[in-house]
Amino acid sequence: MSATANGECLGWAARDPSGFLSTYEFNRRSVGSDDVSISIMYCGICYADVAWTRNKLGTSKYPLVPGHEISGIVRVVGTNVQRFKVGDRVGVGTYVDSCRECEYSDDHLENYCSKGPVFTFDGVDSDGTITKGGYSSYIVVHERWWLTCLSLKNVDILTGKLNLNLVRFYSFSRYCYNIPENYPLELAAPLLCAGITVCSPMMRHNMNQAGKSLGIIGLGGLGHLAVKFGKAFGLKVTVFSTSISKKEESLNVLGADHFVISSDQEAMAALTKSLDFIINTASGDISFDSYLQLLKTTGVLVLVGSSEVKFSPMHLAPAARSVTGSLTGGTKETQEMLNFCATNKIYPDNELIPIQYVNDALERLIKKDVTYRFVIDVANSLK
């Protein structure tokens, strides 16, 4: 196939807010000179797939092909692509482009692009079409690469010497990622959303300091990966859950150090001012006041779940505690996370399914009936 060719793509799409998905044929945009076309092998299922297919935010554009945890094989590269070749193992996460001009795009924080990143599905692509996600046979993504560059204004015209204070360095980043050769593609898919969603704030807030203490609220697709990252960083990990059924899994399978039922007031009180960090991966109504009291002075509570946030400022100010949010991650840190997972053998726990089971899987996800992430075997079931 030539680098400018496009063609029919087979996928599964929702046609209306019922969220029911069925087979759907459509055309992807042409592969441009800076694009990479990827044969999709696997795609993880995220709760965002439920929210968008059922128009929970009121912005969904139908037909809607969900899926933003994608792993696959490069099938076509554009003429200007330098970092990928046909046959490479790659992944695509929650966005496929950004403005490439704002300070956040410059700093590899494309997920916080001032103009908004182009989401992998239900976004507006560079050609004006609506993006369609990983419940499909292939996808086209901009490589995005920048070289370090200088201009004459960076050079003192009298001495000919470089003024380093004026130099603007552009480094390489991309909207698809290399998946290390020793990392299974089906396990890589959930890292592109769930993995980076918990890893990014952990790195930003220095939650990688061995010996520090981390609390994790919720033990689902995000929470179980937070446990694995926490242990890999050498942290003392405490899991908070509303369900005693999660205790065995938390302690004896995932390796958490402690498990606490959040409704047990005595157990919660025993942890007062004992944690350096807390990550909330849960949704629903949560008593954040009870968790804030568990943080040490200058402790940090990070919100990556979709809970409604209510708490008293008096649980922040006297101990200089902070509450912050985080949404996926930038291109640089996503690649670093993938490499870290391969080196440290951090693998999500998945249930592999054929795409024909996807409607049942979404219903089970709503009921929290999955350990811990569904992954669609796209290559072997999409026909």
Number of strands: 17
Q: Approximately how much helix is present in the residues?
A: 10-25%
Q: Classify the secondary structure makeup into a structural class.
A: alpha/beta
- Biggest sheet, open or closed, and with what strands and sense? 7 strands, mixed
Which whole number gives the mean pLDDT? 89
- Work out the oligomeric state of the chains in this entry: single chain
The radius of gyration is 22 Å
Describe this structure in words.
The structure is a single chain. The chain has 383 residues and is an alpha/beta fold. 21% of the residues lie in helices and 24% in strands. It has eleven helices and 17 strands. It has helices spanning 47-53, 103-106, 185-188, 194-204, 221-232, 247-253, 265-269, 288-292, 331-344, 358-366, 378-381, and strands spanning 8-14, 21-27, 35-44, 70-77, 89-92, 95-97, 118-119, 138-142, 176-178, 213-217, 236-241, 258-261, 275-280, 295-303, 322-325, 350-353, 373-377. Strands 3, 4, 5, 8, 9, 16 and 17 form a seven-stranded mixed sheet that branches. A six-stranded parallel sheet has the order 12-11-10-13-14-15, with helices on one face. Strand 16, helix 10 (358-366) and strand 17 (373-377) form a beta-alpha-beta unit. Helix 4 (194-204) crosses helix 5 (221-232). The radius of gyration is 22 Å and the shape is globular. The two termini are 20 Å apart. The relative contact order is 0.15. Residues 1-6, 146-160 and 164-172 have low confidence and may be disordered.
